[in-house]
Write a structure and sequence with these properties.
The chain has 432 residues and is mainly alpha-helical. It is 52% helix and 5% strand. It has a 3-stranded antiparallel sheet with strand order 2-1-3. The radius of gyration is 31 Å and the shape is elongated.
Length: 432
């Protein structure tokens, strides 16, 4: 089909504001005017079979781009001449040729191809999809951490009369969430299979149903794990450092055996016997000048080994969740490509090392126990946090309909339905 014939068959453009033909009869300003194809039914029918439009004038190209956008399509246009400028400016993305393109063409384009190669358009589309996916990866991780931290802190504060995570500790969580994690998740490189997926509908919400499923259920799972260790840690958390066990003064005065109580602050007991409650309820901190005992009081914002473990476990849950958040399309193998992304791996290792140093050496500054954590406690925190990977795999087996958000149909379902509807309209026109 030739351009003038195409323009005549479509009836030109009409302004949706004043209902007059564009641009000759339209009295609206450019900012107000909203064009649409006058004969939209014929345009939809033609788009199902038209492949080439020859001898196209600037207004023909402009009408074609406008009609495709009226159909809610994402339109990209390439050009090098002044006559391509209207279509380039109207398109969602305009690609101007950097070598042979005119100045008017470059000014109207959104992206300038420096080598004038159409393969660069494919690379641009691939990188565009990858950047969009990286944004979604970070949002998935960030919202999971936010929901988990908010609910855990609020409920914990209500039940314990104090926040299980202190302000300085939440600051470190925010540093992971806002800075280091964003850098790590933004380093994911484009994969060849990105172009195998259908285009993203521009009306789709950035947080997809699959992401919502991950955010809600992963946050719930992490909170369950944290509350189990918050209220049952005395039965599960190992303690093997003799210096931190119940000292001789308390054994003599209170009559305790060599059990593994931990000081200061909130206590836990490995065996979980009745003496645990007695120690919490009674005031045994008047040591009458006993310097050894004085060290085990709760000065300077020190936390117990128990609460230090809770903080360590919380951070490790997010560290492992960073790996799970790399996949946002329900990929089964969430560890695929983990060692291929060197930048992500380096940042991830930095987070692990810095977290270890904070736990072991910052003490009162981060409201942690001066002795940090034993190697058994570190291994337990890492081992428990790895359950995130197992839960994430099980979560991907659940259908998207378990999340009653963002409409009844998933994004893929809506795309499929729209494609089938378009094919049905085309078939009806062909039969007619």
């Amino acid at each position: 089909m030739e351009g003038p014939e195409f323009y005549t068959d479509m009836g030109g453009l009409i302004c949706t504001v004043c209902k007059k033909e564009c641009p000759n009869d339209c009295e609206c300003t450019t900012e107000v005017r909203r064009e649409r194809v006058k004969n939209m039914g014929a345009f939809r029918a033609l788009m199902g079979k038209m492949r080439v439009m020859a001898r196209s004038r600037p207004e023909d190209k402009y009408l074609l781009v406008t009609g495709l956008r009226n159909m809610n399509q994402v339109v990209a246009v390439t050009g090098d001449g002044t006559n391509d400028a209207p279509a380039l400016s109207k398109a969602d993305v305009g690609f101007g040729m950097g070598v042979t393109g005119t100045d008017v063409c470059k000014a109207a384009a959104d992206i300038i191809i420096m080598d004038d190669s159409f393969t660069s358009v494919v690379k641009a589309a691939q990188w565009g999809r990858n950047i969009y996916d990286n944004i979604k990866r970070f949002l998935q991780f960030q919202l999971t951490v936010n929901v988990n931290a908010l609910i855990f802190t609020v409920i914990g504060a209500i039940l314990l009369k104090e926040s299980p995570l202190q302000a300085i500790q939440l600051l470190w969580v925010n540093m992971i969430m806002d800075s280091l994690a964003s850098l790590a998740l933004a380093t994911e490189l484009p994969k060849p299979d990105l172009l195998d997926r259908p285009p993203q509908n521009k009306d789709d919400f950035v947080v997809s149903r699959k992401m919502t499923k991950h955010i809600l259920y992963m946050s719930f799972f992490q909170m369950i794990v944290l509350f189990i260790f918050l209220f049952g840690g005395e039965y599960m958390i190992p303690e093997s450092i003799p210096e931190l066990r119940y000292n001789g003064y308390y054994r003599e005065e209170v009559g305790l055996d060599d059990s593994d109580f931990v000081f200061p602050g909130r206590l836990y007991h490995i065996n979980g016997d009745e003496l645990y409650e007695k120690i919490i309820d009674q005031e045994f901190y008047d040591c009458e000048g006993d310097n050894t005992c004085e060290d085990y009081k709760n000065p300077g914002g020190h936390s117990s080994r128990h609460m230090t473990f809770i903080f360590n476990l919380f951070i490790w849950l997010q560290i492992i969740n960073m790996i799970a958040s790399r996949k946002i399309h329900d990929e089964k193998n969430i560890c695929k490509g983990f060692f291929d992304n060197i930048a992500f791996l380096i940042i991830w290792v930095i987070i692990v090392i810095v977290n270890f140093l904070i736990i072991q050496y910052t003490g009162a500054f981060f409201s942690l126990h001066p002795a940090g954590q034993s190697w058994e406690q570190h291994l337990m925190a890492i081992g428990v946090s790895c359950s995130v990977l197992i839960f994430n795999l099980l979560l991907k087996l659940l259908p998207d309909d378990v999340v009653p958000l963002l409409g009844k149909d998933s994004v893929d379902d809506r795309r499929k339905a729209a494609k089938e509807a378009e094919q049905g309209r085309y078939a009806a026109v062909q039969q007619a």
